[in-house]
Amino acid sequence: MFGEEDGWKFMDALHENIAAYTHSGSKPCKMAAAGEIPIGVSFAFRGAKSKADGAPIEIIVPSEGVGWDMEATAIVAGTSKLEAAKTLVDWSITKTANEMYNTGYAVVAMPGVAKPVQYFPENLTEKMIDNDFEFAANNRAAILEEWAKRYDSKSEPKG
């Protein structure tokens, strides 16, 4: 969103305000919901669920936009179970599957299927940034190496 150089500058400034990096994307929200930390950078869906469960939190959507990722299904080349894999992939794009995904995700691939989630920001899909998945995939190792060099000192121990 900011480009590579300005993106790292943004992350450097954000890093100054991070207590710890977790290995769970929902843990910062759970910690904020429990009053363990004042702010958790986390998934809006987890925030909405926590707020619906009575947590005294507010969900804030950055004006610049929000990052997102894509859940995907694929068939591994050379699988010995090709017909079973095709059956799974065919099912994964059905309306029934998308309705099931909606129990864990507020945004699903099939338009008109997702039911509103209480407290989930209404305009979040409009705030999703343009992701360059090809760039991210092709540069994943270098990005992770640079991130670790700059910020890993505040990461929770892997366990």
Q: How would the global form be characterised? A: globular
Structural class: mainly alpha
Number of strands: 0
How many separate structural domains?
1
Helix tally equals 8
The SSE string, one letter per element, is HHHHHHHH
Low-confidence stretches: none
Cα(first) to Cα(last) distance is 32 Å
What is the makeup of the main sheet?
Answer: none
What is the average of the pLDDT values?
Answer: 94
Query: What fraction of the residues are assigned to beta strands by DSSP?
Result: under 5%
Provide the gyration radius in Å: 18 Å
Give the proportion of residues in helices: 40-55%
Task: Provide the fold topology.
Layout lengths: L3 H12 L11 H7 L10 H9 L29 H11 L2 H7 L22 H4 L5 H6 L1 H12 L8
Keywords, please?
159 residues, mainly alpha, 43% helix
Q: How would you sum up this structure in a few lines?
A:
The protein is an all-alpha fold and 159 residues long. The protein is built from eight helices and no strands.
Describe the structure in your own words.
This protein has 159 residues and is mainly alpha-helical. It has one domain. Helices cover 43% and strands 0% of the residues. The two termini are 32 Å apart.
